[in-house]
Amino acid sequence: MKENIKQIIRELSQGDLIGGELEDKESILLQELRCSNDTSEIKEICSALTKSGTILAVPSLFALIKGSGPTLKHLFEEAVIGIARRAKARGSLLPGQYYTPEHWRPQWQGSKKKFLSYVNVLADIHQKNDENEAEVNRIGEILAKEMQIDISPYTSFKDFKVCINGWDFKEDYKIVLDRMEQERVIAAVEDAGIGESWETFLTDHLNDLKYDYLLTRLKMGDNFAYHQFVLKMAECLNIKD
Question: Please, what's the b/e burial string for 162-177 (b: 16 or more CB within 10 A of its CB; e: otherwise)?
């Protein structure tokens, strides 16, 4: 285990962190959790989160629960229970569904063709090499189940992808690129001193937590901030035609 991870685990376990420092260091632990295959390390991190973790860790923990066997699943569940119990004791007004996996399950509103493009965008930014096709199929299988996409009569995303007609990825990819340009302009405006509304701020942060869930579920833990940004941009495909 890396020394900085050991130090953060000690600090959380002792309750030495508060506020922004706690959230920043918790984020480092969550990133380690997403990538770790070391059961003893996972156990120590979950123990620290159980004692001092914040509500911001909940979506990632639920995503890890879904992809784990019984032993690890129990550790992640205990961490969620500890966080929920502590938040309630401190007078948190969060609704009970915040602590349920259904609350974080993503919803798909767009067409099946747009869904296929959405999957390809995520795979493209995660795996730019000859294994891209396998990554498309891996991500597609997970998302089809998470979002409850009806791909019948096909039994796999791979077959669904091959057989769908009239799909134009280049056109959909351009939509995503245009959305990125819009975001760049918005960021420039905010840098000039014109801030976003409080409602927009809250909505963006709630969506960020949902992206945490989805990226953790997809095991896209590397370069997390960038992948989160691309996922946010690709949401422009997730609208009713």
Answer: eeeeebeeeebbebbe
* 82 contacts 51 by C-beta, under 8 angstroms: yes
Q: What is the pLDDT of residue 205?
A: 66
DSSP structural state of residue 236: G
Q: What does the block give as tokens for 227?
A: 């992948």
Q: Residues 50, 53, 59, 60: what is their CA dihedral angle, to the nearest 10 degrees?
A: -80
List b or e across 70-102, with b for residues whose CB sees 16 or more CB atoms inside 10 angstroms: eebeebbbebbebbbebbeeeeeeeeeeebebe
Alpha helix (H) ranges present in 127-194? 132-146, 157-163, 169-191
- pTM for the model stands at 0.85
How far is it, in rounded angstroms, from Cα 217 to Cα 34? 9
Note whether 94 and 55 are within 8 A (CB).
yes
Structure-token pair, residue 210: 């949902």
Quote the CA–CA distance of 41 and 44 in Å, as a whole number: 5
* Gap between the Cα atoms of 1 and 10, Å rounded: 13
CA distance 122 to 24: 26
**What pLDDT, in 10s, does the model give residues 57-71?**
999 999 999 888 999
CA of residue 130 relative to chain centroid, distance: 25
